[in-house]
Amino acid sequence: MPNFNVEELKARFNPEGSPLRRQQMVMLEMAKVLDAVCKKHKIPYILYGGTLLGAVRHGGFIPWDDDLDVALMRKDYKRLLKVLPDELPEHIVLQTNDTDKNYYYFYAKLRDRNSFLDEGLYDHPFKERGIFIDIFPMDRLWPCIHRLPLQSYAYTLIRKDPTCSEKTLRKIRMLTWFNRHVSCPILRAVCRITGAKPLMLDLGIPFHLIYDMNDVFPLAEHAFEDTSFSVPGNCPHMLTDMYGDYMTLPKDLDHVYHHVEKLEFYD
């Protein structure tokens, strides 16, 4: 049982009608759309990261959390990206390297076009900048290969040129293309040929945690807000790997917010 008062936390961080709660409800709507598409096409996925922690510890969003993450195996991720564009309502758009030429992350986002979210420096080049949920691909990779700084130069370029001049954007696009079509395929092939077993987020994603496939599959369902979503079969073990004593709240709740520069709703 949690050692905290759920309602007190909601009243403190995300009361109904607050900007954060409205943002969470937009993300929840997009997650329901994603869940419906995955069920229709039999594509397995899981809640991931802080979203999974929120499901288990809070029965929904962590009260101060302003993102929503899902993950799926890379082969399923590729299937999902193929079917999503034809399944999304008009106000939700898929954002990838293919749909947004200046988008340089190596995972996809669903974006809400009825809002605007400014997270700071690194998302300024993107065409779509509404409230989002993250969709992470996972693969069997060697940790030493995963830690190669494939996309780190893109962040360096933006720090050096916060205005994101066309010259800077061209360099980022070239780097992203090279890594997508040359570096990553070669490195994945090396991992596959050498029999890599560790399960990690895909190459180019700068989070280096290692997971056990047996903790993920077979999948389960868990309540989240007013619905339920797919989760790893062994949530306790996976959350312990990620957070340690995951049922205990952070000690300093005054510094748990993510940094959002600007948030607007257009509806």
Describe this entry's structure for a reader.
The relative contact order is 0.17. Strands 1, 2, 3, 4, 6 and 7 form a 6-stranded mixed sheet that branches. Strands 5-10 form a two-stranded antiparallel ribbon. The chain is built from 9 helices and 10 strands. The chain is of the alpha+beta class and 267 residues long. The protein is globular, with a radius of gyration of 19 Å.
Summed up:
The chain has 267 residues and is an alpha+beta fold. It is built from nine helices and ten strands.
Over the alpha carbons, how many angstroms does the gyration radius reach?
Answer: 19 Å
Q: Domains counted in the coordinates: how many?
A: 1
SS strand fraction: 15-25%
Q: H/E order of the elements?
A: HHEHEHEEEEHHHEHEEHE
* CATH-scheme architecture: 2-Layer Sandwich
Q: What is the 3D shape? A: globular
Q: Please, what is the oligomeric state?
A: single chain
Main beta sheet: 6 strands, mixed
* Low-pLDDT ranges: none
CATH class: Alpha Beta
- In whole angstroms, the N-to-C terminal distance is 39 Å
Say what the CATH topology is: Beta Polymerase, domain 2
Name the helicity range: 40-55%
Q: Count every beta strand, where a strand is a DSSP E run of 2 or more residues.
A: 10
The computed structural class is alpha+beta
Q: Helical element count?
A: 9
Average pLDDT, all residues: 94
